């Protein structure tokens, strides 16, 4: 006759089941991240770090813990949430699984104190390492998407702001900057949050103009600064190395200084006179041609660019452009976005 478990043994079995379930959860999440690092990013270093962490977790997954598994008797197998049944983008897949890993490691850290104190210390260290991995990977994702982005929409105040932006995102826009110089902070925060959510859904980058505090408050992908705004070094210290910093430039000296200061991209212009930059003399196409030959980071020609003159800007050497009025005031932003992208993506004839 098999003796029933004592109360202490019953608690021990529950702890073992918790550890087993969360070891599985952490390993599964790490494998999902690893596959994207390997096949999506072709980044051997990040993939190797995932594999190392996965093997470190597996080291603690002993036969003793596996033997406590009771899948048929686990009520959690039936629990689900609508957000788990669909993902809007690769970014949402990655973020969901990083959360899964980090939560699992926190559970392992606490419950393994009742099982193996050394395991608890190891799980704590791994959790911090996963935080670092998340920052590195999300930063890498941002930079990859920045390099791929051809069209950059800078918003202007509008009663149809969200509708215009979503229409552009439907047309293939992958980079958006929220710019409103006159709104009060409560409205600015509200609009920034809504725009960030839209960009998240469509897999686009979301940048905030000028305001590092707003960018941090809404978890934006970065900030765009002017020549008279916060110094780049201070912005970088506040934002960290993984978020993007852009800077407006009007001449080659400002361009070279921006590159030296470590910005991620620059605006080149204003190419044509524009009411969004009153008082600024247009740089013309000459600065565009200079940037095409000398700029080593992504750059966007900006200033009065629209469907009528975009090919002149492209012919001057621009591969990326930023626009305001041509999309914010368009009757059909989706179609205009598609047209602008079709011109930017066209194959240039061999010279």
TrEMBL record:
Annotated protein name in UniProt: Thiamine-phosphate synthase
Catalytic activity: 2-[(2R,5Z)-2-carboxy-4-methylthiazol-5(2H)-ylidene]ethyl phosphate + 4-amino-2-methyl-5-(diphosphooxymethyl)pyrimidine + 2 H(+) = thiamine phosphate + CO2 + diphosphate; 4-methyl-5-(2-phosphooxyethyl)-thiazole + 4-amino-2-methyl-5-(diphosphooxymethyl)pyrimidine + H(+) = thiamine phosphate + diphosphate; 2-(2-carboxy-4-methylthiazol-5-yl)ethyl phosphate + 4-amino-2-methyl-5-(diphosphooxymethyl)pyrimidine + 2 H(+) = thiamine phosphate + CO2 + diphosphate
Residues at which 4-amino-2-methyl-5-(diphosphooxymethyl)pyrimidine binds: 177-181, 209, 248, 277
Residues the entry annotates as binding 2-[(2R,5Z)-2-carboxy-4-methylthiazol-5(2H)-ylidene]ethyl phosphate: 274-276, 304
Region Disordered: start-end pairs: 65-85
Domain Thiamine phosphate synthase/TenI, first and last residues per copy: 151-326
Annotated Mg(2+) binding sites: 210, 229
Functional pathway: Cofactor biosynthesis; thiamine diphosphate biosynthesis; thiamine phosphate from 4-amino-2-methyl-5-diphosphomethylpyrimidine and 4-methyl-5-(2-phosphoethyl)-thiazole: step 1/1
Annotated keywords: Magnesium, Metal-binding, Thiamine biosynthesis, Transferase
NCBIfam families for the chain: PRK02615.1, thiE
Pfam families in the cross-refs: ThiD2, TMP-TENI
Function (record text): Condenses 4-methyl-5-(beta-hydroxyethyl)thiazole monophosphate (THZ-P) and 2-methyl-4-amino-5-hydroxymethyl pyrimidine pyrophosphate (HMP-PP) to form thiamine monophosphate (TMP).
Start and end residues of each ThiD2 domain: 17-135
Region called Unknown, residue ranges: 1-129
EC number: 2.5.1.3
Similarity section: Belongs to the thiamine-phosphate synthase family.
GO MF term (any one): thiamine-phosphate diphosphorylase activity
Annotated GO biological process: thiamine biosynthetic process; thiamine diphosphate biosynthetic process
Organism: Nostoc flagelliforme CCNUN1
One Gene Ontology CC term in the entry: cytoplasm
Cofactors required: Mg(2+)
